[in-house]
Amino acid sequence: MAAAMSVSAVVPPAAAVARARTLLCVPATARAPREMAAEVAAAAALGADVAELRLDRLSGFAPRRDLPALLAKPRALPALVTYRPKWEGGEYDGDDEPRFEALQLAMELGAEYVDIELKVADKFMKFMSGKKPEKCKLIVSSHNYDNTPSAEELGSLLAQIQATGADIVKIATTATEIVDVSRMFQILVHCQVPIIGLVMNDRGFISRVLCPKFGGYLTFGSLAKGKESAPAQPTAADLINVYNIRQIGPDTRVFGIIGKPVGHSKSPILHNEAFRSVGMDAVYVPFLVDDLARFLTTYSSPDFAGFSCTIPHKEAAVRCCDEVDPIARDIGAVNTIVRRSDGKLVGYNTDYVGAISAIEDGIRASQSTHSTASPLAGRLFVVIGAGGAGKALAYGAKEKGARVVIANRTFARAQELANLIGGPALTLSELENYHPEEGMVLANTTAIGMHPNVNDTPLSKQALKSYAVVFDAVYTPKETRLLREAAECGATVVSGLEMFIRQAMGQFEHFTGTPVVDNEFRALANSLENPCTAKRTQGAVPKPRL
Ligand code: NAP
Ligand code: DHK
Q: What pLDDT, in 10s, does the model give residues 36-53?
């Protein structure tokens, strides 16, 4: 395992030489030239800066017949022409000579960029024998589909590519863990020539969004989901509309959600929109993290300013923070980590207020009379799960005077939590036959029913008949099978989306240090039910709304 480089040592380009804005390139991967041309037009309509023509993807490609049409002017976008051989991850399966001839023709036809692999760069330069048109920039690229080398090896690779006379360096590696990306950020910041530096697959995702912060020349975004040209490539639309990539620069503060899995989270959509609405120079990304401590010590720069924390790291987060809010410590789970101005990591838990207030308000909405006391007081409150969320719910319900029961797959953890809050523990099978009284409250805090396993449910419909109120922490999908069947049994149901919005509100206040206006944040969240409908003036930075 190569040593992780601490990003705290990374000096963003603002302190180095100012660099041009990172370009957004959309790969055109169609099998037919006419379709490829249509993809380029679609990429331009999306707002891309460059279109990559992946000639190796074309069926029956005939350079002299097809390239003049593909590169005819006026063009919708500047063209980056790539003709990737199989031995470097592409689909071209032939000799170098015809491939070089096609790339040379592309240059003669005015391609703004041409990509050639490091392994044959010298051979290609000899083939061109100095006939490269001045306007065409030569990208010399290296792809590692297995791992991300050490900082020293990356530095040596950079030097090799620079020695070829490349106009632009391109290094693409593969992450085996998210800390691998820190070494690519190091290379980006310290490289003195234009460089494209990306790390492939899910654990390398942040390289594609954050490269503008560290001076990357270009990042790739697919035309649509399913049209990616490399593992875990985001769509161009998400880079623009969710991650606000045009606004990311050396001073942009980085926030994100730490978890495994993390792809289901709606936090990036919500927090990025919230940052945009207050005009804060910040971006929020998904961090797919295996080892929490290693992640936090690697990305220790003050620019990595705050984190949401989800499965399975909430309990470990208590140990990784320098200070922990007393309530979070009592709960034994942290879902919010903020890096204080003195560099200390401070942990909080916004889950419990988010969930408990959502359940209380859900019950009040179903009641004709209202009292100031919590509607949970005195009720039997059954929590399924004993993880981070389960601890938050158990703690919060107890605080409100409920009698709390814990059921969990691993009974020892149920017993441990039950002992903490002074209630009984049940196995999941005992829960099926547990109905000591009517009017009980059920809270699912397991991942059961979470996308993609949407037909799963933690409790049979028959057993649900004993509950007056049912809450599900799972919020993807918004209506889980558990909530649907509980409603069919006549229970008051409370969605995890309600908890999600409320816990995110608390989190956003910790991230920004400023109070949030509840109804404005909620309106923002609801406008993101379908991110495509989120209202936004293209290009303009909206006036502060929170
Ligand atoms: P966690 O700390 O990993 O705890 C997971 C809990 O779920 C554990 O008790 C685990 O039981 C149980 N579990 C997981 N898979 C199970 C299965 N197949 N069968 C039975 N039990 C299973 O995770 P967390 O942070 O508490 O989050 C749990 C869920 O709540 C996730 O879906 C998360 O997205 C959701 N959540 C939502 C919000 C929100 O804002 N709506 C906030 C927090 C959490 P064992 O002890 O036996 O492993
Ligand atoms: C889910 C949780 O577990 C919260 O505690 C985090 C995260 C947000 C999510 O985005 O799914 O704060």
A: 999 999 999 999 999 999
